[in-house]
Amino acid sequence: MTNATSLLDDMPPPIRSYTGPQIALGDLRPLTIGNVPIGFPVVQAALSGYSDGPMRIVARRLGASYTLAEVMIDRFVLELKQRRRTRHRLLVTDEEHPVGGQLMGSDPADFGPAAKKLVEAGFDIIDINFGCPVKTAVGGCRGGYHLSQPDVALEIVSRTRAAVPDHIPVTLKMRRGLDDSDESRERFFRILDGAFARGVAAVTVHGRTVEQRYVGPSNWDFLREVKQHAGAKTIIGSGDLFTAQACLEMLRDTGVDGVSVARGAIGNPWIFEQVRRLAAGLPQLEPDVSEQRRVLNLQCELCLQSTEESQTLSTMRMFGIKFARMHSHHAEVRSAFATARSVAAWREVLDHWYS
Predict the structure, then answer these.
(1) How far is it, in rounded angstroms, from Cα 189 to Cα 235?
(2) Does the residue 122 lie in any domain?
(3) Is residue 1, in this structure, part of any structural domain at all?
(4) Which of 147, 145, 173 is nearest to 160 (CA)?
(5) Residue 132 falls in the annotated catalytic set
(6) Which end of the chain is less packed: N or C, by CB atoms within 10 Å?
(7) Is the confidence at residue 12, as pLDDT, over 90?
(8) At 312, is the secondary structure helix, strand, or coil?
(9) Does residue 167 fall inside a structural domain?
(10) Could you count the other beta carbons within 10 Å of the beta carbon of residue 339?
(11) In this structure, are 192 and 103 located in the same domain?
């Protein structure tokens, strides 16, 4: 899960210096998760508050080979009713497959029933979140907190794997530990090895610790070490993937089987198309205001099809602010989106700034 706070929203992405030969399309191995073929090894992460159905559909149409729904707390899934305000949380459309549903919680007993409900809704893969660093999650003994208790973490894995059909892959999302201590490192590898032994098909590893949250560079050396340790088992890397170049560099420099784009996809769904073009040796195409308008309008229409207008406005204000980073008048556009009080007013921002 990725939860980008308002402070982090305004922080520039980390800058890395890359050296060495560029990885080429022919060097990339297609990604497979269990028995589910993914294809191009650059996927979209679960993004808390963001990766709803419309965002996932936009990402798929712009080159994402696999997307994950925003994380859902297991108890929320179990208590979810088919009401208009909430039914979109379990809505999976035909064009999304393969798509993953991500669970987070504290009680191992809730994971199995919640995972079953996600399978019934149509999710192709069940992902377990052991990586969320947000205080409310860790304080509630969820997400990254489980990296401190391997026995409980592995019980969650066992219960989830046993609850869903054999053909549904179960995966994990982890950070490299609670902190940089030797004890955290030992717990990480105990969970990693134990999860694979219990039938997990792939593990996504974020190169920061829970303590780091989103501050400081992601440790790609650790990702390389994890992949070497895992051997033929599927490892997906995460952290500091804000450009197409960074995605290819992580694949090349760490040897991971795939990479998962998180914050780098918020407001820039074109990153998936950009990395495909870069790998193929094609020139990069930056979206002009006309293309930005097209995608923003598409996402708005998709939201209106699945949620009430008030929810659509809230969602599209948030996304408009993110997309505004690409606009030459980003401060004015950001402010205009933020102050829109209706979907009609939000569309007026498009008419004024993206005509």
Answers:
(1) 13
(2) yes
(3) no
(4) 173
(5) yes
(6) C
(7) no
(8) helix
(9) yes
(10) 11
(11) yes
pLDDT tens digits, 26-61: 578 999 999 999 999 999 999 988 999 999 999 999
Q: Which of 132, 247, 300, 303 is catalytic?
A: 132
Tell the burial category of 61 from Cβ atoms under 10 Å away from its Cβ (0-12, 13-18, 19+). middle
Distance CA 186, CA 179 (A): 11
The yes-or-no verdict on residue 74 having pLDDT over 80 is no
pTM of the model: 0.91
Last residue of a domain, one of 257, 279, 301: 279
The closest of 55, 36, 5 to 261, measured between CA atoms, is 55
Report percent pLDDT > 90 for the chain. Answer: 79
Whole-number pLDDT of residue 139: 87
Same domain, 274 and 322: no
* Token code pair at residue 11: 């922080």
Amino acid 40: pLDDT? 97
**How many other C-beta atoms lie within 10 A of the C-beta of residue 203?**
22
Q: Report phi then psi at 221, rounded to 5.
A: -60, -35
222 lies in the same domain as 306: no
Torsion of CA 82, 114, 104, 305, to 10 degrees: -30
**Is residue 11 over pLDDT 50?**
no
| Integer Cα distance of 278 and 290 in angstroms | 22
**Model confidence at 4, in pLDDT bands (50, 70, 90)?**
very low
Question: Is the distance from CB of 172 to CB of 204 less than 8 angstroms?
Answer: yes
pLDDT digits (tens, 9 = 90+) for 308-319: 999 999 999 999
Q: Is 173 helix (H, G, I), strand (E, B) or coil?
A: strand
Q: Is residue 271 in some structural domain?
A: yes
Q: Compute how many other C-beta atoms are within 10 angstroms of the C-beta atom of residue 331.
A: 9
Whether 197 and 266 share a structural domain: yes
Mean pLDDT of 319-345: 96
Which residue is it, tokens 């974020």? 206
| Domain, as residue range, for 253 | 6-279
| Residue 182: C-alpha distances to residues 178, 179, 186 (Å) | 10, 9, 6
